[in-house]
Design a protein that fits this description.
Number of domains: 1
Order of helices and strands: HEEEEEEEEHEEEEEE
Mean pLDDT: 81
Distance between the termini: 28 Å
Helix content: under 10%
Shape: elongated
Low-confidence stretches: 1-23
Strand content: over 45%
């Protein structure tokens, strides 16, 4: 797999607001959407920008992770939390890119666009070395609308995949694994560790 310049990653980053802690002892404060990961994948002449994130109404907005002697603890205000909410939405954004110019949009109907529009997403919970597949409740796929003012020049089409996940009684210490496939070929893997 060929590395794509880091400037390409910068074009995906505005999709998300990610909190950054001030020092290792400061609590990490999450925003409404939790970034799971992002990557520009270049395989066999196909270039696709991928980003995965999770949301659950306002559960993550203001959630703090604090490192303590007992391990990582989670708080919302003064209330300590131990489990994910009952329901999560995992979203994966896929943008078709032109491999010869990774900042340019691939034309509709191109090989890159066909891959971006037909991905398979698999989810798992991971605790230490044990992974457990997640039965996704519903997968919704749609072509995201082009932002205003971007209609004047080619803009990468963005396919969105939204997966509803039952997460009741899942500890916040578990990792959410997002695996992306194109047909039967592995494409990318992201892991969220709160």
């Amino acid at each position: 797999m060929r590395q794509v310049p880091s400037i390409v990653l910068a074009f995906l980053l505005p999709l998300f607001l990610v909190a950054v802690p001030g020092s290792p002892t400061d609590p990490y404060r999450y925003s409404k959407s939790v970034l799971v990961g992002f990557e520009v994948v270049h395989k066999g002449g196909i270039c696709t920008g991928l980003a995965a994130f999770m949301t659950s109404d306002d559960f993550f907005d203001g959630l703090e992770a604090r490192e303590t002697e007992a391990g990582r603890e989670f708080y919302k205000g003064q209330k300590q939390l131990s489990d994910f909410p009952d329901d999560l939405t995992v979203s994966v954004a896929a943008r078709a890119l032109d491999c010869s110019n990774a900042l340019a949009a691939a034309p509709a109907g191109s090989a890159s666009d066909k891959v971006a529009s037909s991905l398979d997403i698999k989810l798992k919970w991971k605790q230490e070395l044990k992974e457990q597949p997640i039965d996704a409740q519903a997968v919704k796929k749609y072509l995201a609308p082009t932002p205003p003012m971007q209609e004047l020049e080619p803009y990468p089409r963005m396919w969105m995949y939204e997966i509803s996940v039952k997460s009741k009684d899942v500890p916040l210490t578990q990792h959410l694994i997002v695996e992306v496939y194109s047909g039967d070929k592995f494409f990318a893997r992201f892991a969220a560790h709160l």
